[in-house]
Amino acid sequence: MGSALPLGEPAPLDGLLPASAAEGADGRALGVYVHVPFCRVRCGYCDFNTYTASELRGARQVDYADQAIEEIRMSRRVLAASGVASREAETVFFGGGTPTLLPADDLVRMLGAVREEFGFADGAEVTTEANPDSVGPEDLLCLAEGGFTRVSFGMQSAVPHVLAALDRTHDPARVPLVVRWARDAGLDVSLDLIYGTPGESLDDWRRSVDAVVSERPDHVSAYALIVEDGTKLARQIRRGELAQPDDDLEADMYELADEAFADAGFEWYEVSNWATDAAHRSRHNLGYWRGDDWWGVGPGAHSHVGGVRWWNAKHPAAYAERLAAGHSPAVGREVLDAPTRETERVLLLTRIREGIDIASLHAGGRHAVAGLIADGLVDARAALAGGLTLTRRGRLLADAVVRRLLED
């Protein structure tokens, strides 16, 4: 979640949604995202809406759980008053920032508020992100006993100089420990990686991939480093202190990872995500890619219900002030028109393994499929069965595939 808020119309103080948000709601899954905007150290590459202790300026980390709970209570009232069908939460995801900088008891309390307001569907997936140096065995046991089912560790790399370039503070040797502690607590485990860091060689990346495989997690994410404007990393590259990430090297890194994960029994199910089986895919993130509904709790959090997207005040102090006044924390929103929703549908569904129904594309998109097959970007067998699924090369060029599918 980037730190810059988009342009849009002002959101109403009561947070009520337009009538269009309620249409078809009972046929869409509901997820809840809880943003915890605190970090011990700001990583040089990060553009997320996060704050270190010195940046809070009037907000207090100790107050945050109660503020988030207030928004959770409000979310249920707003949806009901807007006529949106009542549904149990299929997934809950705590992201950040570093959610586990808060006491585990606070995370459990916030989760309890979601359970009280919405209820949980059978087998609901409940995830928290964590840094390897932000949890101990007692924390993970508390989370598991409180209803969490899954933890996603921000490993990023197994190579010390790569972690240093990213301003990550953990010791790579701690990763096996936290994985074991999570397993002992009964939690599913995901490990997150970043590739393309300045100074990272293909051999460095191979070390990280091999380290992940050796831990046998249930799920792996591997994202190419993006240099975001305004970050420390962008300034370092602009000054010539670090090299710009190399696109060709990143492609080699992706292919290495995809092959290694496949050999180890992982299946790709989204361009940057692999799981041991369908049951261990991130159902929360699949909800984003499939265009389901989600309520985003916390400063700068984004929500989406039935084609209405809105976003909260960015700074924790501004967020807290709005809640204290009895107002919705939402500051802006947009109602997506039909062409925008179709563009997003194609963009997002193309990224996942199930792909998109070719018959659902407009004429120009359908006509583009033959050329995409010829270029080795789309799986021919899947296309013959009526579905568009990316090949490995297609995943590397997913944005180009989408552009061609959207051409008239």
Short summary of the structure?
The protein is α/β, with parallel strands linked by helices and 408 residues long. The chain has 15 helices and 15 strands.
Features:
about 400 residues, alpha/beta, TIM Barrel, Arc Repressor Mutant, subunit A, 2 domains, 9-stranded mixed sheet, 4-stranded antiparallel sheet, Heme chaperone HemW
Structure description:
The chain is α/β, with parallel strands linked by helices and 408 residues long. It has helices at residues 64-81, 104-118, 137-145, 160-165, 175-185, 202-215, 232-238, 247-263, 283-289, 316-324, 338-349, 363-374, 380-384, 392-396, 398-406, and strands spanning 9-10, 30-36, 89-96, 120-130, 150-156, 188-195, 219-224, 267-270, 273-275, 293-297, 302-305, 308-312, 330-335, 356-357, 387-388. It has two domains: 9-289, TIM Barrel; 337-408, Orthogonal Bundle (Arc Repressor Mutant, subunit A), CATH 1.10.10. It is built from 15 helices and 15 strands. The strands form three sheets. It has a nine-stranded mixed beta sheet, sandwiched between helices. A four-stranded antiparallel beta sheet has the order 1-13-12-11, with no helix packed on it. A two-stranded antiparallel ribbon has the order 14-15. It is globular, with a radius of gyration of 21 Å. The mean pLDDT is 96. InterPro entries: Aldolase_TIM (IPR013785), Coproporphyrinogen-III_oxidase (IPR034505), Elp3/MiaA/NifB-like_rSAM (IPR006638), HemW-like (IPR004559), rSAM (IPR007197), rSAM_sf (IPR058240).
